Sequence to fold (743 residues):
Amino acid sequence: MTGINRRQAVRAMAATASALWAGRLTAFARDQADHAHMVAASEASAFVPKVLSAHQFETVGVLADLILPATETPGAKALQVDRYIDVVLRTAPDADRRRFISGLTWLDTRSRALFGRSFVASAPEQQTEFLTRLSDGRVSAPEAPAGIAFFEAIKGMTIAGYYTTEVGLRQELGDDGRMVLSRFEGCTHPEHQ
Amino acid sequence: MQIIAPPKVYPVIIIGSGASGGMAAWNLTQQGIDVLLLDAGEKFDRSKYWTHVTPWEARERRARGEGPPAFYLDTKEQPYFTAPNRPFDLTRVWGHGGKTNVWGRVSLRLSDLDFKGPERDGWEIPWPIAYRDIAPYYDKVEQLIGVCGGDDDSDSLPGSTFLQPPPAPRCGEQLLKKGATSIGIPMVAGRRANMTRSTRGFPACHYCGACGSGCDTASFFCSADHLLPFALETGRLEIRSNAVAARILVDAAGLANGVQYFDRKTGAERQVRGKVIVLGASTVDSTRILLNSKSRQHPNGIGNSSDVVGRYLCEQIRFHVRGYLPVLAGTATRNDRGISGEHIYMPRFNHRAGHTRPYLRGFGAQFWNTGASVGGAHGGSEQIPGFGVGLKREIKRRHPAWFEIHPYGEVLPYAHNRITVGANGVDRYGVPYVKIDYRIGENERTMAEHMADTVEEIVKAAGGELVGYQRAALDHNGSAIHEHGTCRMGADPKRSALNSFNQMHDVKNLFVVDGSAFPTATEKNPTLTILALSWRATDYLAASIKRGDL
Fold:
């Protein structure tokens, strides 16, 4: 496996997601992980979203935290995945960025129709109910496929952003980070031999 | 017009410094022959590799304006063209060592199943060599570069007594191996050019798993670390960097007598004179140089009276499958970095009784990204249903349990799969661009079905579950980065461009030593064979020079 091969495989497998653009945006977010985290961090306390409006940015933060909430480890928003997503969108392909923004608009429109409020203004149970429908593909509005694809996109980007942080990779997934070993132990489970 | 030729005539000029050109330079200088080596790029600085840089350290470095070496040639600098609706991924590294700086290191011996394949099934010309011709060179290459592997030996993957100990399989690999062998599908230790023992002064692999960023300790084979410095030590090698070779020049008799190149920094044209030219610029660029070397003596491109140069481009089909092993879900995360990529390999078996199907040639499989990934959550995590605490827990549970299978199948050589020059204008140096016209056929599509069946059987036998599976969804053509065939060797000068020692039938002082010389692609990764063939060809070349034949 080379770096080359791995990148291509990520791209090839991402293309198998049910919505092509969502897979493409997720692959792009993975590819841009270093860059996006770096920019988000460098803009630090003065961070101002450049692609998303203040309301859209707030919505992305709520969604990211619903997708990967705080458990024993912090949630996505605490790890600034909302900022990460704004930075990724800055250099994402134009058409995919537009689809993502339309997805956010669709979310509010549907939320108002269902609950009479924007997504972030809805009650937490309502937000969860709505995402459950999206996640299960149980939305019937004409724009439903675009909404489902939007959910796939933000879910993929949130996962890409979260687990490329030190907290995500080390604390949550348990990577020991060791890069100099004198021997490679491999599988030592007697039941696997 | 007065032409002032540069005074020096080099005994040998080599174009390209990757596996093929690097080996040629190493072998010829060891044998006392002076060599000028032209490379289109520069030496990559190992001290600047980002081998052990975590994702978050990488961010801090980028914020300071730093970056890792840019190994890959930007297509904006050097575009290539493809036929309409037939995309082809071309990956090029212009710099000392070429693609061996970042290669996958899978090092498989071809067998007589490969060399005699065309004889057996009648598709296109046979190789002019057999396993016994190349076996001594495989032995020597493995000892020189350090290849790890197991003690297996079969008709599709000949064994070797020169392999270093293989790294132990990861849990997922152990289960895949157990599952596959239980249903009669062979699985062996991966053979990879990672040194698991300190070799020739280079330290053993330290299992950081970051080989794709280049190795900062030179513990896997790279021509720029393991061949070129030793060639320079002889005092017989001169390397000219940033020399983008354009054409091979000829004398009145049609023999090669020099190389025209352009300085990549200044764009200036230069010419150098040599008695023998060895071309090892990688399949596509070598072919481009040959086809652009048109003259009165060689109107169809140098050495191309047979019209085979540029034809029979063959590569490999492949697809990528991922899933997880429920029995490993929820187990403790282990450090699965290893030698990066797979520690196991599935050699070809489709020729054996009970496995044959109506198509020609065969396939093998690799298993990279099996186990706990180190660059983030495994890509399959996005396919886990739901969201919230349940999703987060499941991503963590599956983290040590992911596996991937990457089968590679041979693409037959077809005359219509072609590299041409001249139809798409010229590059910044005024040299015609290359165009690739490539497609697969019915044989490959039939084989892909067998590849998919095999993957499904292995997964079932290992107790795995596929995730986001799309049956036989082939990756882009060219993505395997194993181009072959466009300057093939053969016994018949009407149907091949090179003889069995990589010497051009038409031009006896021109040798082509890279993958373009292969008459067939096989299902195997080519670099070990390229090294062996280049060593063999330059032994022949050195002997010819010493006899006074060249």
